[in-house]
Amino acid sequence: MKNESIDLLKIEELKNGYFFDKETGIFECIVCGKQFKDGFVYNSNKGSCIADKAIKIHIREEHNGVLDFLLNLDKKDNGLNETQKALLKQFFLSKKDKEISKNMNLSLSNIRNHRYRLRERYRQDKIFLAIMEILELNSSKESDLITLTGKNIPEDDRSLITEKEEEEVLKKYFDEAGKILNFPKKQKKKLIILNKIVNDFKRGKSYSEKEVNEILKERFFDFVTLRRYMIEYGFLRRNKDGTDYRIKE
User: Fold this and answer.
1) For the chain, percent helix, then strand, then coil, each to nearest 5?
2) One-character DSSP codes across 205-221
3) Domains along the chain?
4) What confidence tens digit (pLDDT) does each residue in 197-213 have?
């Protein structure tokens, strides 16, 4: 896995050895990239199972867990030298210090010293992680974030969008006439486009489905997809029989 991809993973995803993409419904192994589609049934040595269980079995049986993968990353990624990597593997295997001493030709005092320093680093890294998360949160608050008018937008980092990000997406996905060139799969990019399109509607005004379709056709040929996302993310609301569409307040 590339360094920039690892940077996007959460700690829990690194520990599990896989991540789940909500937009595509795909579970992906971070070790080899194998994918499992949510809702599908897969065969394994344990019998048939659904995707989220299948990928766990895959990681356990094909990679013997994710620890080796994380330990074998470059030092610039995990910060560990070769001795520390070997020691951590011995600790994971629940080896006693005397056995480790024999296996690695290290004195008992040396092993105890390494164990202490690794625990100390763990304590320091937890504090450092907390500091960085506070800084990131504060940075997000102070940066020029745009306001999303949708009322059903997931509260995660994909909804934190800067003016610069908005500008880049609008430039990439709209032509000079204001038509959408293609509709992106990534949620953040979708939200940017939908947030712009909702400005084509007047607040407080009632629209029929036909009127909504005509407005959206001016932006993109697949107006049905646009309409569905406008409703799904709460930019527009409609009544049960679809005769009344309005900007959701």
Assistant:
1) 55, 10, 35
2) --B-HHHHHHHHHTT-S
3) 1-74 (no CATH), 80-142 (1.10.10), 157-247 (no CATH)
4) 999 999 999 999 999 99
